[in-house]
Amino acid sequence: MTSVRDRGQRGAEDRRELPVRPTDEDPLAASASELIGGPAGRRVLTGGRRWWNPLRVMVLVLIGVFALGMAQKASCYSSGWFQPGDPQYIHACYSDIPHLYSQRGFATDLVPYFDRIPDGISSAPDIHYLEYPVLTGLFMEVASWVTPHGGDMQHRAQIYWIVNSAMLLACAVALTVFVARTNRRRPWDGLFIALSPALALTATINWDLFAVALAAAGMMLWAKSRPVAAGVLIGLATAAKLYPVLLLGALFLLCLRAGKLRAFALTLGGAVGAWLVVNLPVILFAREGWAQFYTFSRSRPTDYGSLWLIIMERSGNPLNGVTSYATALMLLLCAGIAALALYARRRPRIGQLAFLVVAALLVSNKVYSPQYVLWLLPLAVLARPRWRDLLIWQGAEVLYFLGIWMRLAYVTGTKHHGLTADAYHLAIGVHLVGILYLAAMVVRDILRPEHDVLRQDGSDDPAGGVLDGAEDVFVLGAAAVRDDQPAAYEQPVGAPQGQ
Fold this sequence. Notes:
- This protein is mainly alpha-helical.
- The chain has one domain (about 50-460).
- Helices cover about 60% and strands about 0% of the residues.
- The protein is built from 23 helices and no strands.
- The protein is globular.
- It is found in: Cell membrane.
- Belongs to the glycosyltransferase 87 family.
- It comes from Actinacidiphila acididurans.
C-alpha cells in the first residue's frame, strides 16, 4: 500500500515536470491578470501545439516595449542630440551612439584600435583610441559599415543610431529567449525581460546589451550542462564588457562546494580560449589601442552615479585614491559573498550568487551609468523571479534614470533647470537602496531556502546544470542540508507558495 509520504513525494516530482504559470505562484501577477480577464488555463499558457506559445508572446511583447523605448528618444533623434545646450538631458533621451559616431572616427572610416583618433575630434582629450573592449568595438564597426556615408553628418549619425538600435533589438530578443530557456520549467520568466521599463529606457544609450545577451547565453548553456560552450560565451561576453568575468568567480565557489571543479576547469578553459581568440590579434598588432580601455578604466576619476561621488561632494575630499577605495570595497563584498556561498546550510543557486557578485561591483564601482542596470537584469530574474521585488528595484532604477539627466541638465544648462547636488545625491541613494533591497531578498532566500520560490517544490537549482542535485563535498561551518533531502522544507502538495 502506498504511504501518504510516498504519494506526496510523487506529487512533488510531478509538479517539477510541469511548466510554472506566473499567476499560480505570484500574487502580484495573479492580481494584474484580472485586467485581461484573469489567469489563463494551463493549456493556453503552456502553448502545446498552438502558435501562441510563451516564447512567441514574449518576443512580440519585447519588440513592442523596445519600440516604446526608441520612441522615447524621438525628440533627441529629431534635433536634441545635435543642439547646443541641454535639450537631450531635459527630455531624458541622451544616447552615446550618435555622438561617438563622429567622435571616435567611425564617420571617417578610422579602424578601431589601429587608427589614432585625431586631436580635436574626441570630446575627451585623454582618449586617443576607442575606449571599449574589442568585441564591442567590432559591433560598433559593423554598424558603421551598414550606415550609408552620403548626406550631412547629422543625418548619418541618426542612421547610425537606427542601425545600432536594430542590432541591439536583436540582442534584446536573444536575451529574452536565453532567459526563458535557462529554466525549462519557467518559460514565462522571460516576460520579466520583455516588460522591463529599465530595458526600454536604457537599451539604446550604449552597447551594453550586446555583452548582456552573450553572458545570458553562457548562463543558459551552463544550465544545459554544457560547461565548455558556457565558458566560450562567457569569454566572448568578457571580450565585449569586463563584468561577465565575475560569473566565473560565482561558478568557482559553487563548483568548489559541490566538488565539480572539473566542470569549472572546462568552463574556465573555454572562457580564456574565447577571450584570447578575440583579443590576441589586436594585442599583437595594435597593443596601444587595445590597452586604451584598461588604462581609461583604471585612471577614470569618481563619476556620476556612484557612492563615492556622494562622499566626495558632501565631504569636499577629492578622493584621489578612489580606485583603491572601490577595489577594497569590492574585495570586501566578494569575501562576504564567498563566505555566504560556503557557509550557507544549503548551496546557493547559480543565479543567486551571480546576481550578488555583479551587484557588489555596481555598488562599489566609481561610476554608474544608467545602462548598467542591464547587467543585473537577467541575473535578477534568475535570482528572484518575483514581480513585486523586481518592480521595486526597477522603479528605483527608473527614478535614477530621470535623476542623472536632470542633474546633467542643471550642470550643463545656463538656466540651471534640473536637480541640485542634494537632490541628485538622493537619486543615487534611491538607486543604491533598490539594488541593496533586491540583494537582501536574495541573501534571505539563501539563508532561509524555504522562502526561495524556485525551491519550494523541492528543486535544487534548475539552472545549475552539473550542480543541480549534486551533494556538497566542501562546506565551512555547520553541516549543510543534503541536496538529496529537499523534503526538509518542502511544502505539502497543493499548498500555496509564499513570498
